[in-house]
Amino acid sequence: MSQLTMPKGFLWGSASAAYQIEGAHNIDGKGVSNWDEFVKIPGKTFKETTGEVAVDHYHRFKEDIALMAEMGLKTYRFSIAWTRIFPNGTGEVNQSGVDFYEAVIDECLKYKIEPMVTLYHWDLPQALEEAYGGWESPQAIDAYVNYATYLFNAYKGKVKYWITINEQNIFTGFGWMTAMHPPGKFNDEKTYYQVNHHVFLAHAKAVLAFKEIMPEGKIGASFAYSPSYAIDSRPENGMAKLDHDNLKSFWWMDVYAYGRYPRTALRYLEKQGVAPTITEEDSKTLHVAAQKVDFMGVNYYQTATVEYNPLDGVTPFGEMNTTGKKGTGQVTGVPGVYKNPSNPYLETTDWDWVIDPSGLRFACKEITSRYDLPIIISENGLGAFDKKTTDNKIHDDYRIAYLAAHLKELIKASDEGCEILGYCTWSFTDLLSWLNGYQKRYGFIYVDRDEEGGTLDRYKKDSYYWYKEVIETNGASLSVE
Ligand code: BG6
């Protein structure tokens, strides 16, 4: 039997985000972002780490992209810092910022690497936060669409793939429910859903603007999707899984793909008094934009296990493991609906993230059945403690095993009929993990820096050479039959 591969032209890639790699936080006219401010609050990040320097990609992007080219990368997904383009969120454009990203794009194109641009990877201009509470106000929708439209016009002809919003479910959940991201609100559920509604509208209006400017371009959102399993066959757990999926996954993906909320989840939120206000015009906008979306972007890290959660059960506010001390994360859930216990059949990472390669195939098949959309896996990877040896080698065989297992499942999903356009590992270089400092490493390239600092020199890990071969053989080196 011959070995399976991904389809011809498949976008083998890797991803990053501006705040996590660039540094240069106050250089060349960049404005202040909500993250620049949030990290100053004691206790919010691991060992008070910030992105002020990050891994200095701003000054080293040519070196980093040359390493991508040598590896044979077909696409590089990166985000644009809104504050480099519009330092105050709207108003005057900062030309240096526009030039910086144009240089990054040109550097990719020079090596035939397809640039894939994320418009919003969580770093909101602080000016908008201060003016009207950022995403809490519908005014943020217009500001975002203005910013997005500016970039569509600036880079049209050079950038074909665009991601509107990165992990809307994560930044809103952490921002308005658990206070772990800016603006640091706790259990403000009503605002959380209203904010999400504003972000959906921003996404939708950007999609509509995009299709006017670049009808041939490709656009979608990237969703942090954790497919789920019921813990057993008890009917109450099956129902909990259904409710969990509607509230935790389909609430977002249905809006991107269908332009409407899942009806039973909406009814539940109405009963709780926390449903968003949705006008008829909003519904129309969401619906029309959904017809024009080109793909479902998926950031896949893990699956969830679901069990019924009694009314006096766990809350969404359990501790999250941000230290890498295995077993310190707590079970969370919604009282009266569901909880997410650990899965006895699966291993976890040092940060208690479930390792479930077949969950990636599950995610692709679920999306294909439910939405019939092409898929871009915009993130997948393993955060781990890596060690550099005295002769500057990094033997990350555990990362190779993790990625290989996931890619085998992806190839099977493709063989089973899912239309998968690309796959980006998280991440190309090591970078700042928002809440977990620099010690949680994801890259193919080791960056010599820790929470205190470092030389910022780059070193290829063993996984770098391994992925190079995967790309060269279009996946055949993974020996899936
Ligand atoms: C995703 C984000 O949530 O996962 C990335 O889009 C993030 O920005 C990545 O870094 C890994 O998460 P973490 O918390 O381990 O850095």
In angstroms, what separates the terminal alpha carbons? 6 Å
Count of folded domains: 1
Name the CATH class.
Answer: Alpha Beta
Residue fraction in strands: 5-15%
Summed over residues and divided by their number, the pLDDT gives a mean of: 97
Task: List the strand order in the largest sheet.
Answer: 1-2-3-4-5-7-11-12
Order of helices and strands: EHHHEHHEHHEHHEEHHHEEEEHEHEEEH
Major sheet description: 8 strands, parallel, barrel
Low-confidence stretches: none
**Record field, number of beta strands:** 14
Helix content: 25-40%
**General form:** globular
Number of helices: 15
Summing up helix and strand content along with how strands pair, one would put the structural category as alpha/beta
Characteristics of this structure?
481 residues; hydrolase; Glycoside hydrolase family 1 protein; hydrolase activity, acting on glycosyl bonds; alpha/beta; TIM Barrel; binds 6-O-phosphono-beta-D-glucopyranose; two-stranded parallel sheet; single chain
Plain-language structure description:
With 481 residues, the protein is an alpha/beta fold. The chain has a single domain, classed as Glycosidases (TIM Barrel, Alpha-Beta Barrel), CATH 3.20.20. The chain contains 15 helices and 14 strands. The strands form 4 sheets. The protein has an 8-stranded parallel β-barrel, surrounded by 6 helices. It has a two-stranded parallel sheet with strand order 6-8. Helix 13 runs parallel beside helix 14. The longest helix has 25 residues, at 189-213. The mean pLDDT is 97. The chain binds 6-O-phosphono-beta-D-glucopyranose (BG6). Residues 17, 20, 166-167, 170, 224, 299, 379, 383, 426, 433-436, 440 line the site of 6-O-phosphono-beta-D-glucopyranose. Its EC number is 3.2.1.-. GO terms for molecular function: hydrolase activity, acting on glycosyl bonds. Keywords: Glycosidase, Hydrolase.
